[in-house]
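In the previous chapter we treated chains in isolation. Here, by contrast, the input contains two separate entities that must be folded as one system, with a combined length of 893 residues.
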Amino acid sequence: MRTSVVFTIMAMGCLAVILAIVTGDVYRQLTLENQSRGLANIVDLQVSEQIKNVREKAIRLALSIQANKKFRQALDANQSKRLQKELEDQFYRHYVVTGEIDIEQFNVFDQNFKLLASAVADSSLLSQDVLQCYDVIEELKGKDRLARLQPVSKQCLVDGRLYQSIVVPVAGVKLKGYLQAIVDPLLEIKNIERHFGMPLIIKYASQQEAYRSESWPGYIDPDTTIVVEHSLTDSSGKKYLYINLAFDVAELHQKLGQTNWYVLLGAAFITLLTILFAIRWLQVAALQPLENLTNQLMLLRENNDRLGRQVEVGGNKEIRQLAIGFNAFTSELHEAHQKLEMLAFTDTLTRLPNRELFYDRLNQLVLLCQREKMAFSLFVMDLDRFKYINDTLGHHVGDQLLAQAGERLRAAVRGADTIARLGGDEFAALLPKVVDIQGAMIVAERINAALSEPFMIEGNSLHASVSIGMVMYPYHGEGQNELMQRADVAMYYAKRNQLGYALYEAEIDTHNVLELTLETELKHAIQNNLLKLYYQPKIFIETGEVYGVEALLRWIHPERGFIPPDSFIPLAEQTGLIHPLTLWVFKTAVEQARQWHDKGLILNVAINLSAQSLRDPGLVESIAIVLKNAGLEPKYLTLELTETAVMSDPKQALEILSALDKKGVMLSIDDFGTGYSSLAYLKRLPVDEIKIDRSFVMEMDEENNDKVIVQSTIDLAHNMGLKVIAEGIETEQSWQTLKALGCDMGQGYFMCRPIDAESLDEWLESSDWPPKKAK
Amino acid sequence: MVKSISGAEVVTAEGGLAKVFEYPGMVIVDTRHKGDRVQGYIEGSINLPDSDTNCDSLANIILAYDTPTMFYCNGIRCERSANAIHKALGCGYKNIYWLRGGFNEWKAKGFPYLRNSQ
């Protein structure tokens, strides 16, 4: 297509050049014709000028002769011989001596036109030729007196030759005669040759040549010579003299040729430019954009990544339309392609890459770094309180937390890094540019900082920190599985030790296998409800009525049997499992209390709070939600805190306890007397009761010191408006002693050991201790 | 340049000749100096330079006070003819014609003239 278009344009160009040549030739012909016409006009003017010239010269000469005194005297004397001589003298003087005029003949007439004397150049011409030019005399005869006093002039032909005949009067104020001069004008006409510098031929009507320039060319080349013919015509229209001039137009021809050539060259140049421009235009307007589009399509076929890339083409309207269509099409395809890819490789909740994509990228990065001998970092991250929040506040809150956490993670790393959600609350980061420990720590701190800010979800301010396990290729492993596993180990280490982040080290990998197993199993137990709550009644000593129960966590391992809380609670605290555990305990206990209330058994349920729970700023909110969900009044919930827990961060403890107190929850200080707190300090806390540690109660009957401590504790507490409960009552005697000391409540094996909810129901039915019943 | 003189009639060469034909006794006065006459003069003209013109010299060449008389000099720039005419008028002559174009006009128009040559 392209070649044919180019050929068409070329053909048009050739046509233009041919046109230029033809036009040039036509103009050349026209120019030559104009030149001939112009020359003819000039020749005409020149000839007329010369003839006028010869006439005036002749008249001047004749007037001069008639003014001559001797000539006058001869005429006056009517002496023919004298006159003849005088005439011949004059003839000789002017014709022979000056030669300024070609005089052929002089004639003198009297006033009656009678010929008196005559002088001729060639005596043979004399007799008959005079008569030939007698016309002028005839003409004079017809004129009046005044007109006869002025000169007349006429041309006459003798034997085909041209003469100028003039007659002047010989007179003063009175006419005496006439002087006729007959001259040959050729001498003057020949001047044209000198005037133009061109050769000349003068011919009579008989075609006899009167004159031929020596330089008249033998051969007339029409390309270099223009012959201009001018003719003189008499009054009857008869031509009697031809004047041919040969003008050398070689230079003109050369100039015309040159001009023609310039014009042709110009035309060719312009045509060439036009052709180039047309081809260029065609290329810009149509071919190039089409080629662009085609190239894009070819590239697209080779590489899907180019989908959606917009082409920008110039060109004419149609091409641009095509490009717009193409762009729209590729955009749409690109979108569809992206959507598909996203569905396959994106986590719909966080919009982060999913596990599959992450492993794919990890795999590729491992391959690349293997080849290029480069390093990179891999983080595995786990939200510390996710399960707790999810269980407490529901899945929709958990989902939002994940989404927000995902956003923060993504914002905390660079664009080239990959943040993926591996599942649950587990995230991972792939950091190709982080190649040293220092850099990894900076990123980890940045991530920690980003997630330490509370999350605002449905009006709740939630805290969910993150634990990060870091490994670095190739120092910590060369395969993706090894890397992931070790990052996991580091992550658990960080979580257990509440470090925020930890780099993998061989030492931490050789950790207590039992502990790790226990941890995993605890996780499993929480998730699968394998933990149980046991309840031990709290009884008013004075009335024997049951006030409430203390909920105690029991883990009956299917293989290892009973695992005491002392051995797994610290583990739970270390690994962050304490949060979901606490939440589970709350929900279960509160739910149980609700059930008892429904049965008419108005029991207060007491729950032990760990020191770590006390540091949880989301605690108050969680408790409120649990109570609300269960529909239990806060006053039926007692939170027991150890002295040590309170004292580890008294300021925060005061804050949280105040908040709980405001909600109406009962607060109790557990294991009182074992720590270093004073009652004076406790006074500042919004607590409702104190629980005297079992060690004092169990020994007080034998050790008087203990009894004094119990006694003074009870007195002081009462003074401060606090209730006192004693735990560890194992004998009737202890019961009685406490009764005597005025202790408010008691708890111990003497009354009832911790039992599960069903057994407690039975106990309440059968025992001597009456439960507080609803009215 | 004087164009007309009251009491004198300005004539062209043809007009002057016509007057000559009308009054054959007309006197033609050439008011130029003698040297100027070498180039030619109207036949029959009497040479009386204006500097020599007075009532006596005029009386020598003009028969009566009413004899037609034509004055000329070289041409329109020459003032001699005009001077002579003033004098003639002063002496009481009438029928005075002034060929104001002078000999130049006469010669240019191809009218015959005379010249004193060897």
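The first helix of chain A runs from residue 2 to 66. The two ends of chain A are 104 Å apart (CA to CA). Compare these points with the single-chain example from earlier in the chapter.
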